[in-house]
Amino acid sequence: MRVSVLGAGSWGTTVAALVCKRHETLVWSRDPGVAEEINLRHRNQVYLPGFALPPALTATDDLVVAAATAQVLIMGVPSHAFRGVLERACDHVPPWIPVVSLAKGLEDETALRMTQIVEQVLPGHPAAALTGPNLAKEILAGKAAATVIATGDETVATLLQEILQRGLLRVYTNGDVIGCELGGALKNVVAIAAGMAEGLGVGDNTRAAVITRGLAELAQLGQAMGGQAATFAGLTGLGDLVATCLSPYSRNRHVGEQLGRGRKLDDVLAEMITTAEGVRTTPVAVRLGDRHGLELPICRTIHRVLTGEITARDAYAGLRHSPAGTESGPW
């Protein structure tokens, strides 16, 4: 099987490094220097410093070549670049091949999930999402992990499961594409909140409360949009939420932690070479909450912090005055 991964960031490169052990794999980078380094030195020092990549993995900066040679196309670009890259590649993608999204976000203007964009740009191609508690550096280091391939086509799910499962990475299948993608996108908002708690030093009890109530919001919105309740208690909901909220490798947690320490959002983002999807997802989540008549207090509070309306300290001070109500909810 010939697999092309579009995007040579940390997660795209990691997935390509796993797949190339049994399948011919080509990774596309928009940066010719990154592609050259992968080919000549078997490294990607920009996104995965200190890690050696398999010699079998090859790279290119030619998007047409990467798209045209694929039998499976994996999209490893952030959500804000997803449609643009796919539109540039679409005329060269062979008919009917599966297209897999690695992005955990929602399109800003449309609030669409990534598989919905695939269906718009490449109609007739099976669309899937790979999502779960998957921190790239831990997986590349060979640590055990589990992930989910979400698609409504069982035959495609089985094929992709075989291609992606390697060593200690266990790949499950799930037909609830809506729930899986929304879990992956919305948990990033909660991770910013959890990071803020860490930066403020408010304590583990507070952080646990925010994570738990964040899961409730995630599940409420996800179900309102058509996801299944059980999905949000699984790898793409609770599992991904825990990893992203607690790991020092988490970009969104890092953003929240820096905000909690009093830094400005623009300064934090300017230092990052990778994308914190939660920053872009937060306003989309608020709009979706309005559309479905949901309060989503954590999402709305994080939005106020990100827009500069209040500080992280103000946000957590407000928790002391929020009415508790009943814990049970529609999820």
Largest sheet: 8 strands, mixed
Q: What is the residue-mean pLDDT, rounded to a whole number?
A: 95
**Biggest sheet, strands in spatial order?**
3-2-1-4-5-6-7-8
Structural class: alpha/beta
Radius of gyration: 19 Å
Strand runs, count: 8
Q: Can you tell me the CATH superfamily of the largest domain?
A: NAD(P)-binding Rossmann-like Domain
Mind sketching the topology for me?
Layout: E1 2-6, H1 10-19, E2 24-28, H2 32-41, E3 58-60, H3 63-68, E4 72-75, H4 79-89, E5 99-101, H5 114-121, E6 127-131, H6 136-140, E7 145-150, H7 154-164, E8 169-174, H8 177-200, H9 204-224, H10 235-246, H11 251-260, H12 265-270, H13 277-292, H14 297-306, H15 312-319
Parallel strand pairs: 1-2, 1-4, 2-3, 4-5, 5-6, 7-8
Antiparallel strand pairs: 6-7
Helix pairs in contact: 4-5, 8-9, 8-10, 8-11, 8-13, 9-10, 13-14
